[in-house]
Amino acid sequence: xxxxxxxxxxxxxxxxxxxxxxxxxxxxxxxxxxxxxxxxxxxxxxxxxxxxxxxxxxxxxxxxxxxxxxxxxxxxxxxxxxxxxxxxxxxxxxxxxxxxxxxxxxxxxxxxxxxxxxxxxxxxxxxxxxxxxxxxxxxxxxxxxxxxxxxxxxxxxxxxxxxxxxxxxxxxxxxxxxxxxxxxxxxxxxxxxxxxxxxxxxxxxxxxxxxxxxxxxxxxxxxxxxxxxxxxxxxxxxxxxxxxxxxxxxxxxxxxxxxxxxxxxxxxxxxxxxxxxxxxxxxxxxxxxxxxxxxxxxxxxxxxxxxxxxxxxxxxxxxxxxxxxxxxxxxxxxxxxxxxxxxxxxxxxxxxxxxxxxxxxxxxxxxxxxxxxxxxxxxxxxxxxxxxxxxxxxxxxxxxxxxxxxxxxxxxxxxxxxxxxxxxxxxxxxxxx
Length: 433
Ligand code: PMP
What we know:
Blueprint: H1 4-16, E1 39-43, E2 46-49, E3 54-57, H2 72-80, H3 93-105, E4 111-115, H4 118-133, E5 137-141, H5 173-177, E6 179-182, H6 187-197, E7 201-206, H7 223-233, E8 237-241, H8 254-258, E9 264-268, E10 278-282, H9 284-287, H10 306-319, H11 324-345, E11 350-355, E12 358-363, H12 371-375, H13 379-391, E13 394-395, E14 404-405, H14 412-432
Parallel strand pairs: 3-13, 5-6, 5-7, 7-8, 8-9
Antiparallel strand pairs: 1-2, 2-3, 4-10, 9-10, 11-12, 12-14
Bound molecules: 4'-deoxy-4'-aminopyridoxal-5'-phosphate.
């Protein structure tokens, strides 16, 4: 596959954009290097690079593109959003309508605020929890990513169940001191952390289905309920980070799938239909702590911008149509089962975690239930697989910790073409063994 133009553009990028990328996850650092592909166009389940190479896309821009690229209703909403100017810095009807639609889908969002990113949404919910409880500490789960606010860069990598260590330079010891990390899917560890830090804990923050060390679901159907009970018994609030999960698996939250209720939710990605967005919301009494009603400050020049409201609305309108999630689930299953079979045929040890249309192929034969399990999978084999797929026209995220996202635009034919590429990749990898 000729990627001369990609290489040219990326060389130019590196001279002006730090590291050539506007988000580190886009670099190929964690897949043994190479030049990131510079994309030019997307349509449905396909994207094309600047050399004109075509790929079946499972990156989905790290999640938002649940309808695939350039869905006609979303594109129409985006066009219409430009007819009357772009931004007013005032309330608009679109943010009202969109908030009403979100609340109708997710009744736990008694009050909502729109922001510009998942990072902002999570960051603000933590501030609110601290204000409400008068406590400082946050308990989070090792390996979970909640955006790049200072506190959330603590143990976004490994972490013992003690006070965390920042994974980024530039985070103060004071900030790190306020973040406690426990392994996901381990109630005893959470209990132990609460026994030590419970009286200082403002909130327990959880991705109800993890999307950030690969797809990892609760190991038991009661896990989330127990997390919530333990947190509440300690007097802490529960924040669900549903930036990846909301509207991913059904028309609503992961909380609804498990029949549980958090105090606050952070949303993003899918709800913007591909434009920048974040949102947070939850219990009315808790949300009323936010300015202008309460003492917690949060603001944003671009917050609730009409374009994101309107593309988000269009995206949710399509997602509300019957059968979409069933289709994505069926395609996800077809893909996962196909990869499983091919892995067995070619002697590749893989563990596939899947929820609906989202799945992760881990190189290893052990179950992946927490970050340590994910870390113990083979990154070198993953990197080989990643490049082999890319060269065969299949685009997935360049990290062993990410998910493949099947969109509503994918078809059985796309999945079958993907499986042919996977077979080619496994064959090539087997030949090198
Ligand atoms: N929370 C979760 C669970 C995420 O996956 C992400 C982004 N990958 C974020 C928060 C941060 O969102 P954003 O990139 O929009 O700031």
